[in-house]
Amino acid sequence: MTLGVDTYREAFESIRASLPGERGAAFEAFAARGFPTNRVEAWKYTSLRPLARQRFAPAAPDREAAVPLMGEGPRIVLVNGFLREDLTTVPVERWAGPREPADAGGEPLVALNAAMAGDGYVLTVGDARDEPIEIVHATVPGPTGPVAQSRNRILVGSGGAAHVIERHIGLGAGAYFVNGVTEVEVAAGGRLRHTKLQDEGADAHHLWFMPARLDRDASLESTVFTFGARLSRNQIEADLEGEGASLVLEGAYAVTGRQLADHTSRIEHRAPATTSRQTYKGAIGGQARGVFQGHIVVSEGAQKADGHQLNRALLLSGRAEIDAKPVLEIYADDVQCSHGATAGDIDGDALFYLRSRGIPADAARGLLVRAFLAEILDGTPEGGLRSAVEKRIDGFLEAGA
Amino acid sequence: MLEIRDLHASVEGQAILNGVDLSVGAGEVHAVMGPNGSGKSTLSYVLSGREGYAVDRGEVLYDGRDLLEMEPEERATAGLFLAFQYPVEIPGVGTMTFLRTALNAVRRSRGGDELDAMQFLRVVRQKARALGIGDDMLKRALNVGFSGGEKKRNEMLQLAVLEPRLAILDETDSGLDIDALKVVAEGVNALRSPDRAMLIITHYQRLLDHIVPDRVHVLAKGRILRSGGSELAHELEEKGYAEILSEAA
Amino acid sequence: MSRIAAETVEQVRSLGDRYKYGFVTDIESEQAPKGLNEDIVRFISAMKDEPGWLLEWRLEAFRHWQTMTEPNWAKLGIPMIDYQDAYYYSAPKQKEALNSLDEVDPELLATYDKLGIPLREQEMLAGVAVDAVFDSVSVATTFKAKLEEHGVIFCPISEAVQKHPDLVRKYLGSVVPYTDNFFATLNSAVFTDGSFVFIPKGVRCPMELSTYFRINAANTGQFERTLIIAEDSSYVSYLEGCTAPMRDEHQLHAAVVELVALDDAEIKYSTVQNWYPGDENGVGGIFNFVTKRGACIGARSKISWTQVETGSAITWKYPSCMLHGADSVGEFYSIAITNNYQQADTGTKMVHMGARSRSRVISKGISAGHASNAYRGLVKMLPGAGKARNYTQCDSLLIGSKCGAHTFPYIESQNRSARVEHEATTSKIDDDQLFYCRQRGIGEEEAVALIVNGFCREVLQQLPMEFAVEAQKLVGISLEGSVG
């Protein structure tokens, strides 16, 4: 039987009439497969079984909740997956329902999002913007453990260049489930810098999909910081469709307790001279698990493709676990591709060196964990985002990892 | 021995050589000097047949044969040797294995016998010693992990072992300290002979203090702008290339 | 595509004509009827005069097999195999029992001469003891007497079933249970022969042991089963070579190899696999679906797999190490060369259970023509594997723009003090290296062979000398065919 279909059909039918656009086909695309189980290769290490069994009521718009902001700059604010126009300062359009069948995507959960998302921003970047745009996705937990599903889109035109910061937070304690999508399209020569800070509540489930298409000489740099949620997955599927397109993906995560943090990417080099770089680093404590799946495909004819990925995990406790699957799938010969993966504890020699200089063990470990994650953080400019990330790393270390 | 006539060549559609004329006779040592980007390395690659260098016009005769028609390995077995500016690293392939494969290919093409392992070892050891190359360097994979100086010395060893008729030395002096430079120069001088010609490509005059050329040519903007005796090198060292470039302009 | 690459593709394409082991030996053979059912399993067991427990084991395996479906997860396009359209037993007809090599069918011996294994000459040469498996039956084992002096048992597994039933019963299926996977289960039901090796406590096997496998009869599947047991503080180096004649139809080879290493024991297992790869259009060739697994049961035990895979239309094999013992060591060194329409999906599993266990994986894949070459591997650190170490390096080399090279590593660590390092690269044969060689007078095809051999050097070094030379030539041959 397909997992989770019955509960979500009920939920879908209850809100169907209120949703813009035609949703039937998208829901059936989800229903045909349901929540993926571990038998689906792409979900081998992240089980959604417990999540699928829980009942979540579709989240309703909340027009009252106060949303903490990071800075005073331009912003877009969504609460429970619905745009808060009163808090949004950037002109955006709103998502008006799926364009069949493209929006259903390959993932059942993206199809579920296409069926049930009630709102979302569509941001068009036509020229170069200096100031970063802060985008807040806030969710209010509730007794029904609401599921928030927004569908967002960032379109960068040929002359466009922007930095967007997507922050994911929970407003108060309690359970909720976020199943969101941010689609990205970068036209020829356009540039997008994207930073995501996933700082959901401790009892949240967070699944976020980012399909991206890059045209000729387009560039996308996306950095994700993952700290929150009981279970989270950040999944990027990037198609480098135009010659010379370039993609940089980075991620840093620090998880503990019983958290699971999954970072999955699939990059298709479909045109010549496309490049991709991926670096993911994670610190895993408690009984937490880290999952990294990175898949580079170089299509036939995509000569001079250059794709590299690196995943490094620090296991900070005896019950922490990392599962990594870095895949290369190459159908062109004139390519340079590589991947590297390491897993292990903090370097004992380095720890000893610091301690021999009088630094207490805990502080020394903290220093080394910070140093380990610093490579990803270093690219982040000083300011609200950076201090928010640093604060979360401090919190992680204080909790004793 | 080598006749270059009105040679035009380009890389990825960009013209680099714009009508080079140069004639090198047997027994002669010629130096080609020029500023960066003048086309010096392009000239050496065109002569040795590297892919990606298109000849747009002109001809090159080597002992009366059309050099440009020949495959790279044909040129090599016919006696043309290029000492690379940046010798290539080939992991897993032993220096000795490589030398022996090359030497036997050259000997076969000249109708000679292949050397057996013992003969080969003797030849290489003796020539290596003269260049200050120890056994441990010979045991390593070709150029892998070699310092810049070691790579250049390894090129000289190959030159000595393969005994070519026309040797092109592309910036052999770059990356060498003064002692290594002397060792290399001695090696090259030892190979000077009436039936062997050399083309020394260099940016600086210092190598030419040790290997005194018969003729010096200034290559700039893809053409030979001036030719003269070895004194021309000293003149360039003093005045730089600017004067010649402005004369030509 | 560069001109060089185009020419190399051409030269590799012509390899089909160059398969020098593609002769058929004309000897009569006894075959069981085509097809697979319980009666065939009983027939095989009866032909071997096997004890009841073994027949039962086979039947259980067969019944289990009937509930299974072919795996489809490997990155292979497998044409459907009709398991009912093959012979499961084919023995060269010969006298009942062999007293000496002189009684072996001279045609058979001539075949092995062609393969480069002059059995008789083996006795002159110090070093290698040979067991030769022809189609399904082991035909001769040399050096028996000398090995027996040291207490080493090296014989066909069918003979071991008769003479050493306790050992076989204790260890058969102990590393690869009959339920393991589709092909291993099939093998358990119908295996016909293979080699058995037992090295007693404290013995260092005085010579390399070697088995040559050859498939000769048409429409025959070959299902050999090899079992090697190294008792405490013993050592053995075992070599395996494989060839098959050129035939239009696909033939199935589904072998199982089980290795058991007790305390301080070491097993070195080397394979040069050169089954018929099919022609340049992908017609014919062996389907090589092999399950190889070693259990490092004992403390400080070591199992080292080295393989050179150049043959077969399809190869599907993952020689693995189950590292139970504290301080045990697993190694996997692999070269896989595919060209024309060959497909290879190979790799290893290193499962670390013992404290301070170590593993090293070096894989070199070379893909040319329209071929596909995949590394698939698992490194798993279980909670008990404190301070365990793994290092993995997978490199792929592509020759021509129509081939594919893929890497699918799975890394799972549940132990903080365990360290896992994985690196992989994919690139084409380097134009600068080719030009450098050619500038020194080395012809293009020789240069390709030189560079590829250099690329594979770390693995070739692991092979025993006589195999290394053969393997190096094989690398050259598979890239021969030359430049226009």
Strand content of chain A: 35-45%
Class of secondary structure makeup of chain C: alpha/beta
Q: Percentage of helical residues of chain A?
A: 10-25%
Low-confidence stretches of chain C: 1-18, 94-99, 117-128
**Basic shape of chain C:** globular
**Count of separate DSSP helical elements of chain C:** 13
Largest interface: A-C, 36 and 38 residues
What profile does the largest beta sheet of chain A have? 10 strands, mixed
Going across the biggest sheet of chain C, name each strand in turn: 4-3-7-9-12-14-17-20-22-24
Strand segment count of chain A: 20
Main attributes of the structure:
heterotrimer; B: 249 residues; 10 strands; C: 484 residues; 6-stranded parallel β-barrel; 13 helices
Annotate the secondary structure layout.
The complex is a heterotrimer of chains A (401), B (249) and C (484).
Chain A: H1 5-15, H2 24-31, H3 49-53, E1 75-79, E2 82-83, E3 93-94, H4 108-116, E4 121-125, E5 133-139, E6 147-148, E7 151-156, E8 161-170, E9 176-186, E10 191-199, E11 204-214, E12 219-226, E13 231-240, E14 246-255, E15 260-269, E16 275-284, E17 289-298, E18 306-315, E19 321-330, E20 336-344, H5 348-356, H6 361-377, H7 384-398
Parallel strand pairs in A: 1-5, 4-7, 5-8, 6-9, 7-9, 8-10, 9-11, 10-12, 11-13, 12-14, 13-15, 14-16, 15-17, 16-18, 17-19, 18-20
Antiparallel strand pairs in A: 1-2, 3-4
Chain B: E1 2-11, E2 14-24, E3 29-33, H1 40-48, E4 53-62, E5 65-66, H2 72-77, E6 80-83, H3 95-109, H4 117-130, H5 135-139, H6 148-162, E7 166-170, H7 178-191, E8 197-202, H8 206-210, E9 215-220, E10 223-228, H9 231-239, H10 242-248
Parallel strand pairs in B: 3-8, 3-9, 6-7, 7-8
Antiparallel strand pairs in B: 1-2, 1-4, 4-5, 9-10
Chain C: H1 3-13, E1 29-31, H2 38-47, H3 52-66, E2 90-92, H4 106-114, H5 119-124, E3 128-134, E4 137-141, H6 144-149, E5 153-156, H7 157-163, H8 165-171, H9 182-190, E6 195-199, E7 208-214, E8 225-230, E9 235-243, E10 250-253, E11 256-261, E12 266-274, E13 285-296, E14 302-309, E15 314-317, E16 320-323, E17 329-338, E18 343-346, E19 349-352, E20 358-368, E21 372-381, E22 389-399, E23 404-413, E24 419-428, H10 431-439, H11 444-455, H12 457-460, H13 465-478
Parallel strand pairs in C: 3-7, 6-8, 7-9, 8-11, 9-12, 10-13, 11-13, 12-14, 13-15, 13-16, 14-17, 15-18, 16-19, 17-20, 18-21, 19-21, 20-22, 21-23, 22-24
Antiparallel strand pairs in C: 1-2, 3-4, 5-6
